[in-house]
Structures are given as structure tokens and as C-alpha cells.
From TrEMBL:
UniProt cross-references to InterPro entries, sorted A to Z: ABC_transp_permease (IPR001851)
Organism: Peteryoungia aggregata LMG 23059
Organism phylogeny: Bacteria, Pseudomonadati, Pseudomonadota, Alphaproteobacteria, Hyphomicrobiales
Source organism, top-level taxon: Bacteria
Record protein name field: L-arabinose transport system permease protein
Keywords: Cell membrane, Membrane, Transmembrane, Transmembrane helix
Keyword Transmembrane helix: yes
Main location (coarse class): membrane
Positions of transmembrane segments: 12-32, 39-60, 66-82, 89-110, 116-136, 157-178, 209-231, 243-276
């Protein structure tokens, strides 16, 4: 029994649970394994998956970011409006990436240099950035003038939509950064013990700023692809995204206490979130119930994180 518990609470156990759940769903839910549904499932998790790549670093360093949904919406708005104003999609994309990175940088500076709690800081920027998105758009969706902008989401490579390739590429890049670079090792070290990391020569303040700046940049990428997919800049887009992303990360074994994260676990967590929503849609379950399911998934994720931390002897 102890070995079974150890397996279920470990990274390998998460994969086993995912494979078993996937097999059960594939055998019991009609049309789940069709090519159309599989591509639709992957496209539905693109935004969560992309943002989770860097939320993993935030959580692993004992921080978190509640402003990601607002940054995604704001960056998408900037991409569309700048493209419309200049007639250049490239300039629109650059403006969106810069705006996302800037918001992330502000978060990082306020949190790391001024020692303001991450919850309060990102809750404030969540409201501020969403407010700016509503102000610049007058609270309405902004249409895309250049049809080529749509191709960012509609184009395909080897029959697979480009956004899925972008998500996969980011999984690979940030997985490499986490496991094979000094940046990744320092992130986990800061999450494990910030003071010991500082004494060991790690610039904890700069590291935290970089992590939040990367978070903003990646949110901008997600915002651009989302705006292209929904064919407009929507100031109310990605509402509640932060909870889905945090749920996916914690389900994937990223510790809320910091110091533990794996990209493979995050990918599994993202897919669990996507499959849950996909199955409810295939079974024609009302959208209202999806809020309940998301809340239960978040609760289960936090419970699992607590059990993992206890099993590892890391009591809060």
C-alpha cells in the first residue's frame, strides 16, 4: 500500500492516472477519438498550455501570477489595434509582445524590488490591465482589418494547426530551460529556499523579475493566437484563465510551496483540464456545470499538492 501511495503521488503516478483516465474516456465517450475532436481538444488547450509554461516557473519560485488572463486579453487587443493602425501585422505583433513583457516586468519589479506580496500585486495588475483593455476598445470587440492576421491561427503544418505547433515548441523550450539551464536550476533553488539561494550567490531579485517578464511575454504570444482564432480583439477574453492555468500546473505536480516542477507533469495537467471540458461538451453537459468541475479540479489539485508535500516531508 505505501508503494502504491508513493506511485500515485509521484510524477510517474500522474502519468499512469492520466493514461488510465484517457483510455476510459476513449472507450466510453462517443466521437472522442476522432481526428476532428483530437485536433479540437489540442486547440482548446493552446492558451492554457502556453501560459502554463511560465506559470510553472512562477509557482516553482514561490510566486504566482493572477494577471495572466488580463495580459492575454490586453496583448490580443494591442496586436489587433496596432496592426489596424499601421497596416503591418509584424508591427502589431511586436507591439503586443512588448506590451505583455512590459506588464510582466512591472509585476516583477513591484514584487521583487519593493517586496509587495504577489497576490496583491498581480490582483491589482489584473484589474488595471483589464481596465486598459476595456478603455482602449470602449468595451467592444475590435475587428481585424487585414485577413492575413487570421492565418496565424488558421494556417496548418503537416495537417496540424499552427497554434498547436507553437504550444509544443514552447513546451520543449521551457522544458529544456527548466531541466538543462542555470536559470531553471536557480528557479527551483529559489523556490526551495530563497535565503540559501541568495547566500549561494543567486541574484534572487533579478531572477524573479525575469520570471515575471517571461510570463508577460508568453501571455502576449497566447493573446496574439487567441485574437487570431476568435477573429477579433476581445477586451473580455481569457476571463478566469489564471485559475485554469494554476490548476493545470498544480495537477501536474508543480508545488505551491515552491521548489518542485516538471514540464511533463504540466503537460499532463493541461491535458486533464482540456479533456474534462471536452468530455462535458461531447456529452452535452450544460456550460454552467463546467464552473463546478473547474472548481473541483482546483480543489483536488491543491489537495494532491498538500499530499505530495507531506509525503516529501515538506510540511507548510
Amino acid at each position: 500500500m505505501p508503494s502504491l501511495k508513493k506511485l500515485l503521488l509521484g510524477d510517474q503516478g500522474l502519468v499512469v492516472i492520466f493514461v488510465v483516465a484517457f483510455a476510459i474516456v476513449a472507450l466510453t465517450v462517443p466521437n472522442f477519438m476522432t481526428e476532428r475532436n483530437m485536433l479540437g481538444l489540442l486547440q482548446s488547450v493552446v492558451t492554457i498550455g502556453i501560459v502554463a509554461c511560465t506559470m510553472m516557473f512562477c509557482l516553482a519560485s514561490r510566486d504566482f501570477d493572477l494577471s495572466v488572463g488580463s495580459i492575454v486579453a490586453f496583448s490580443g487587443m494591442i496586436a489587433v489595434m496596432a496592426s489596424n493602425a499601421t497596416g503591418s501585422i509584424t508591427l502589431g505583433l511586436i507591439a503586443a509582445l512588448a506590451s505583455g513583457a512590459f506588464v510582466g516586468l512591472i509585476n516583477g519589479v513591484v514584487i521583487a524590488r519593493f517586496h509587495i506580496n504577489a497576490l496583491i500585486t498581480t490582483l491589482a495588475t489584473m484589474q488595471i490591465v483589464r481596465g486598459f483593455a476595456l478603455i482602449v476598445s470602449d468595451g467592444r470587440a475590435v475587428g481585424i482589418n487585414n485577413p492575413d492576421f487570421y492565418q496565424l491561427a488558421l494556417s496548418r503544418f503537416l495537417g496540424i494547426p499552427t497554434p498547436i505547433w507553437v504550444m509544443a515548441a514552447l513546451f520543449i523550450v521551457f522544458g529544456f530551460v527548466l531541466n538543462r539551464t542555470v536559470f531553471g536550476k536557480n528557479t527551483l533553488a529559489i523556490g526551495g529556499n530563497p535565503e540559501a539561494s541568495r547566500l549561494a550567490g543567486v541574484n534572487v531579485v533579478n531572477m524573479r523579475i525575469w520570471i515575471f517578464a517571461l510570463q508577460g511575454l508568453v501571455c502576449a504570444i497566447a493573446g496574439i493566437l487567441l485574437a487570431s482564432r476568435i477573429t477579433s480583439g476581445q477586451p473580455n477574453a481569457a476571463t478566469g484563465l489564471e485559475l485554469s492555468v494554476i490548476s493545470a500546473c498544480v495537477l501536474g505536480g508543480v508545488s505551491l510551496a515552491g521548489g518542485r516542477a516538471t514540464m511533463s507533469g504540466v503537460i499532463v495537467g493541461v491535458m486533464i483540464m482540456g479533456i474534462a471540458e471536452n468530455v462535458m461538451n461531447l456529452l452535452n453537459i450544460q456550460a454552467f456545470y463546467q464552473y463546478v468541475v473547474r472548481g473541483l479540479i482546483l480543489l483536488i489539485a491543491v489537495l494532491l499538492d498538500n499530499l505530495r508535500s507531506s509525503a516529501a516531508g515538506r510540511h507548510r
